[in-house]
Amino acid sequence: MILTVTPNPSLDRTYEIPSLDRGEVVRATGERMDPGGKGVNVSRAVAAAGRRTVAVLPLGGAPGAVIEELLAAQGIEVAPVPIAGDTRSNIALAESDGVLTKINAPGPELTGQEQELLLDTVRRQSRGADWIACCGSLPRGLSPSWYADLVARAHAAGVRIALDTSGPALLEALREGPDVVKPNAEELAEAVGRPLMTVGDAVKAAEELRGLGARAVLASLGADGQLLVDGAGVWYGSARVDMVRSNVGAGDSSLAGFLIAGGIGPEALSSAVAHGAAAVQLPGSLMPTPVHLDPAAVTVTPDAPVDRVLGEPVS
């Protein structure tokens, strides 16, 4: 079982529009609602793979109730943490030419009592979990050290923990030695405080995160592949992608694939790459099922192309 923790989930409303004309009345041609948040997406990908997952979420108000209903309909067990404030609602405007404009709300402020209840719920639900995946931004009220506290508690209970966050929350958590962290290229550059121009730059940055405490780093480099840097060395994975339809949730799908395959070594990296490649070839935020995976399209090697210039260098 993979337990996911999303401290700041959302109800994502997507409107399809011909074009975004500021100051005008824009009529949508289609709309949909989805449960949102990086940990939520990991649970959705795990469930799509036919594996059990439990999602721990602070939920409040009508948006929180809708999120719980939507997740239950996808076969995902929800461990809700009741909060006084309303769960945030995000808006995405999808234009016909593929341009996506997102408006993300800040979310509710959690009280001290709600924060402790969230931690206690994770503790109770983690019994029997193979992994805890903590993902996304922190809501108002939670200090940057909150993830560090969660990592310490998970290790005290003997449970492995994966962390997908950024900024001060990531740096604070590193000191507690999370079993794996999963930054993208932008988050990796931010963590080390310098630009990443090549795959080799990304390797060095991942090694620095290990020096700060991470036991393994799974780094997503977009179209330039993925890296796994751990105590055994460096592995590089890439996959053939015939057509990119949407990259929404692709990184979350990759993390799910990594954890499903055990979360250790090149086999897990291969699964991560396969899941990420399948996700970008699906529309919207759909998560791949086993039928969508193409393991034959994946290449994993210990010889990372360190001189390869990143397609989108990150500063």
Automatic annotation (TrEMBL):
Keywords: ATP-binding, Kinase, Nucleotide-binding, Transferase. Residues 18-286 form the Carbohydrate kinase PfkB domain. GO terms for molecular function: 1-phosphofructokinase activity. Pfam families: PfkB. It is an enzyme of class 2 (transferase). The keyword Kinase applies. It comes from the Bacteria. SUPFAM superfamilies: Ribokinase-like. The keyword ATP-binding applies. Its EC number is 2.7.1.56. Gene3D superfamilies: 3.40.1190.20. Belongs to the carbohydrate kinase PfkB family. PANTHER family: 1-PHOSPHOFRUCTOKINASE, 1-PHOSPHOFRUCTOKINASE-RELATED. This is 1-phosphofructokinase. It comes from Streptomyces anandii.
